[in-house]
What does this fold into?
Amino acid sequence: MSIPNAILQLTGQNGRPACPTAKPIVVEVELLTPLFIAGADNQAGRRDSPDIVSDKTKTIAKEGLRPSAMKAALRFWWRAGFDPSQGLNALRAKEAELFGWVSGDSRGHQGQGLIVRTEVLSSWNAEWPKAMREIELAYLAYGCADSRGPLRPAISPGARARITLIPHSPRHETEIRQALERWLLFGGLGAKARRGFGSFVSLTDGMCIWKSETDLRAAIENHRHQVQSGSAQDCLWSTLWDATVLLKQLEGASWDAALHALGQYYHQFRKDLGADLVQGRWQQKPDKPYGPDHNRVWNWLQGRGLRDPAVDTADTLPDRAGFGLPLPMQFRNRPYKPVLEPVNDEQKYIGDRRASPVILRLHKVGNQFYGLVLVLGGRFLPEGAQVQIREQSIRRKLALPAPAPPPVLAKFIDYLLNLGFVRV
It folds into this structure.
């Protein structure tokens, strides 16, 4: 494959090539599911702001695939494969060597490390995806869509782009290529990437192209030394060590039908923990009682403990908190809007958010779609972190230690295995 002229013309100091000995890694990709991106100004354009929606849709399409977003994704997936036993300081040093130093370190190192260049090839168009009116897709894209349809535009499936990666040194080529493979196996880009959106497939021979389920499973198993080796319960970052990968063939001949089917599994499990989501609100179905998560929070709102007497003997965090924080909850025909969130502690490097350790990913092999579920390893929150529940109209808070890992993750894995998912 020829290298774009823009890459060949890259120069460093004194006109010399920036990376004269590193071999570029080039892959062409096609978008499989809608990509919700905001653009360089971090403004997406929402349905409730029609005056800017049209211009924003055109701008998002015109900006193409931003190299900074691609580099951030590669950083994450390289970090996910790093051996936790080497420690956080070793990770930071190696990551800086591969991807660059922001402002230099004590030894005077600085620079951008890996060079990322992207080029739009065809069909890079933005639209308001009509399929988002489907309840399961709207559920997975919560914040980007609701029951009335999409809340913001997205790049349409079928868009193609070329990604060129130039490592800082030939010594880095293997690790950069592995990070790229992990991204193509497990990851995506943009908002709701952990819920199946912004997924790309490779079009380049020899780079993550699978002709059968056996090929796909073999590709995942190439990373089994990360997935199955060692113990990562105390790892401070999201990691593939001690992670779980589940796979299942899905019904549906299109991306939206397949992702809808995958979303049903995830949604049903969460519904069993609480009430159902209808028209953007949690409500009880006539033939089904509220779940324990609902009961725990409702008891706390009424001045009782954070527990469901039917299943708890002490205050217990809602299980859904283990799928990511902050967790807002709603109660139909009630004024309460409680939120669960980490207790911010800058001295312990504890922020007020935690991304979900569960990643949903759609794959297409021939004409068949497969659903991949990745449950990442590592601590859900740093040691000593607490999760609090608060509600603006109630002048009291309750904070509980954050479990590591949240027990709901093991329940979710067992639930999927009983539904025909296979552990890879």
Remarks:
- The chain is about 30% helix and 20% strand.
- The chain has two domains: 1-209, 228-424.
